[in-house]
Design a protein that fits this description.
The complex is a heterodimer.
Chain A: H1 2-24, H2 32-38, H3 49-55
Chain B: H1 3-16, H2 27-32, H3 37-66, H4 75-97, H5 99-105, H6 109-112, H7 116-127, H8 136-169, H9 180-195
Helix pairs in contact in B: 1-8, 3-4, 3-7, 3-8, 4-7, 8-9
The chains are: A mainly alpha, B mainly alpha.
Chain lengths: 56, 201
Amino acid sequence: MWPAIILIVSLVAIYIASYILNKRTPIPEECREALDEASCSACSNFSCSHKVEEEE
Amino acid sequence: MDFASLGAAIIFAMLINNVILMQFLGICPFLGVSKRTSSAIGMSGAVLFVMVIASMAAYLIYYYILVPYNIEYLQIIVFILVIASLVQLVEMVLKKFSKPLYKSLGIYLPLITTNCAILGVAQGNIISDFPSTMSVGAGFVLASVTALGTGLGFGLIMFAFSSIREKLESSNVPESWKGVPISLVVAGLMSIAFIGLVGIV
């Protein structure tokens, strides 16, 4: 039981850490054009960093 | 394990047991990101990249953590978390260190988190149970090669389908068949064509 809980908690912690680190890493200026071109709206992926930036 | 077996594994994963047309996984990007060939190539590159890394990580976690502690029943949730974390890490590394690669693959990376093809391959490698007939190391190599072949097969179909869709845009298609209906008919015909490859290996 305990290995399962420890594993899940550590994986969730790794995911949260990687999400925060990814969000804090700025998108390179030369790549912004490609992101604007894509203009994605149909995708419902709430963790998408591009979408979050667009909303802000 | 010889190169002939690895080559056969790549051809099997790429053509005979194709992830889109034979297993019907990854249908969302197949229909959603195949309007332009450039988008299809970008998506295929990102899927190939993440699929190989995620399969390797999932295989190692399964045989070195889940099996020793008898918690194999957690494999799906563990694989989902591993894939989601890997995608975030890969995106961050590309942003920081490889701007050209991020420019071509970056926009498609978040979509891969929810791509069932990645989870399907990681899960398939475990279900195949390679170590019952070979060592974990050899199974790891075979799982990685299978992921590579599956990613290449995904890319091949995405490229072929996007080329056909681009051609269809300038073709004389009846009004009611334009867009998704004719794309689904083409996808069905491609799937039937790929059934003909069963039995090669």
